[in-house]
Amino acid sequence: MAISNIVSEVGVFLLRIYVLVVWNIIILYQILSRKRDCWIRINDLRVVHENQGFLVINKHPELLINCTTPWINCLTLQMQLFYNRPHYANWKLKNMFHFVHRLDCPTSGLICIAYDTKVASMIRRAFEKREVKKYYLAIVWGYVGSFCDSDLSSSFVKHESKLVHHIQMPIGSFRYIWPNTGRKQKIIVPITHPECHRPRESLTTVIVLDYGKLMGEPATHVLLIPKTGRRHQLRVHCAIGLGHPIAGDITYVRRPFDHPNIVYLNNVYAMHNVNLDYKLKHMMLHAYTMKINLQVNGKEKNDNTCANKRSYQLPEEKEYQFQTNNNPFFNLNNAYLWQKDEESEKMMMMTTGQRTTLHTLEEYILNNAY
Q: What is the pLDDT of residues 58-89, one digit of tens each?
C-alpha cells in the first residue's frame, strides 16, 4: 500500500512538471505570435473560497475552463486546478473536477467548481432551480440611455428608467462562416435571425453605473444581472438587444448587426483605422458577485459527510455570497484607458435626476433590488 502511494505521488509530481512546461510554452508562443497580451502564471490561482467540497475561483480573463484535449492544450482552468490542487482531482471524471457552471473564455471572475460528488449535486440543483444569482460588471461602447431613447428602440428592451433597462430576448445558436477566413463558428443570435436554431427564453437587467471614455470614445460602466444562464447571453443582449456591445468583445461587434449604435461603432473604427476592441487586453466583462442558496435534501441530511470521505461536512443549508473586491482584472481606478466623463455625468443628473454610485451598486446586490 505504501509503495503504491509513493508511485502515485511520483506520477502526479511528473504530471505537474509536464503541465507546467506545456503551459508556459503555449503562453510564450501566444505572446510571441501576438495572440495574447498578458502572461498568466500557472500558480496564480486566485481562490475566493475553499471548503466543504467546493472552490470558488476568480478566473483570469482569456482562460478556457476546459477542453477535449487537456493534456495537449494545458492552458485551461482545469489544468491550473490540477497543478495547484492535485489532491482534489478525481481521475474517474472526464474533466477531473465538477464544473457545475461555465464562464466564457474571455470573461474574468467568479466560477464555482466542486471537488465532491455530493456537493456538486447540491450546487447543480441550485442552478437548476434558479437559486443562484450572479452579478457582472462590464464596460459597453456608447452612452446607454443617457440623452435620448433612439439608441434603445429595440422591442426586446423595457426601460424602467434612463438607468435601468430590462432585456427579454430569446436567443439561439447559428453556425456562422467568417467572410475573411472561412472559419466556421457557432455563435448566438436573437430569435429574429432567420437561421436561429432552438431559441430559448433569456432575460437580463442592465443598470448604468457611470459614463466615461474608453480610449477616448464614449463608454458606459454597467451592472449586468442575468435572470437566465444562456451561452453568451450577456454579450448578445448588450450588442443586439441594447445596441451597446461589450468593449473587447471581438465576436459580437464584427458581424453586421442591424443596429444604429453598431453602425456608429464601425464608423469609429474606420476613423481610427483599427478595431478598438483589439487594443484592449481582454473583454471588459467580469463576474463580480455570486449568491448560491444551497438546500439539503432528506438523504443528504441523514448522511452529511462528503462523498470523498475527507472528513469534512457538507455545506450548511443557507445562502452563500462571494465577491471579488480589489480585483485586478476589472479595476477602473487602475484602468489607464478609462476616463470618467464629468460632462456626461452632469447631463445624466439633468436628464434623470439621479446618480448611481458604487455604494448603490452594493445596495442592489445586498438588498436584491433586481
A: 999 999 999 999 999 999 999 999 999 999 99
Active site residue 116: no
Looking at the structure, tell me whether residues 145 and 264 fall in a common domain. yes
Q: Give the active site residue among 104, 151, 210, 341.
A: 104
Query: Do 143 and 127 belong to one domain?
Result: no
Question: How far, in whole angstroms, is CA 308 from its chain's centroid?
Answer: 29
Q: Which of 209, 281, 212, 260 is nearest to 268 (CA)?
A: 260
Instruction: Specify the pTM.
Output: 0.87
**Residue 98 belongs to what H/E stretch?**
strand 98-99
Q: Are residues 123 and 145 in the same domain?
A: no
Owning domain of residue 240: 134-285+336-366
- Asked whether residue 171 falls in the same domain as residue 273, the answer is yes
* Nearest-angstrom CA–CA distance, 154 and 237: 11
Is 146 in the same domain as 73?
Answer: no
What is the grid cell recorded at 174? 447559428
8 A C-beta contact, residue 285 and residue 234: yes
Q: Distance of CA 340 to CAs 110, 222, 238, Å?
A: 26, 13, 21
- The answer to whether residue 195 sits within a structural domain is yes
Query: Measured between alpha carbons, how far is 6 from 3 in angstroms, rounded to an integer?
Result: 5
Residue 321 phi/psi, 5-degree rounding, is -125, 130
pLDDT at position 346:
65
Query: Would you say residue 31 lies in a domain?
Result: yes
144, 262: one domain: yes
Q: Write the pLDDT tens digit of every residue in 308-346.
A: 655 467 788 889 999 997 777 887 765 557 887 766 666
Within a domain: 66: yes
210 and 193 assigned to the same domain? yes
Residue 214 · residue 337 · CB < 8 Å: yes
**Residue 182: inside a domain:** yes
CA gap 22, 250 in Å, rounded: 27
First to last CA, the chain: 55
User: What's the distance, CA 154 to chain centroid?
Assistant: 24
- β-sheet bridge partners, residue 56: 49, 112
